[in-house]
Design brief:
The chain is of the alpha/beta class. The chain has a single domain, classed as 3-Layer(aba) Sandwich (Rossmann fold), CATH 3.40.50. The chain is 32% helix and 21% strand. It has 4 helices and 5 strands; from the N terminus they run E-H-E-H-E-H-E-H-E. The protein has helices at residues 23-35, 52-62, 86-100, 116-120; strands spanning 8-15, 39-42, 63-69, 106-111, 129-131. It has a 5-stranded parallel β-sheet, with helices on both faces. Strand 4, helix 4 and strand 5 form a beta-alpha-beta unit. Helix 2 (52-62) crosses helix 3 (86-100). The protein is globular.
Amino acid sequence: MAANRRPNPRAASLNIPYDPEFVDLFLAYIASLAVYGLTPRATLEVPGGARRLDRIIELIQSCGYSFHDLSRVELDAAIPPTPRFNMPFELGLAVACDWLRPNRHTWFVMESENRRLLKSLSDLGGTDVLAKDRAR
């Protein structure tokens, strides 16, 4: 995307899990954005060809908003137990896009438990995080 091209103010990128366990929340995000007149966008729709990271950055820059659900950042069961950091990394890209090009992108963070993000990603201190406080 050209550096001075404005994002679509009605588009919203979704940085959320794409697995069967998350389908209901995935649909809830899409429906909620649509109710507010926003067009949901996701990396699932971005065709191949370019490097994945380039496609993600371009998607974020093309949207006026991004929504980042970090509730599923957890250790996997495979040895060695390892968290996947793709979603927090994409949040960082959105924060950088907002910082480098002020007033062109607004980002939101959702979490499963209140204050969990402030423990795992303390650099976001001062950020309002929307917590679901899901039961484990």
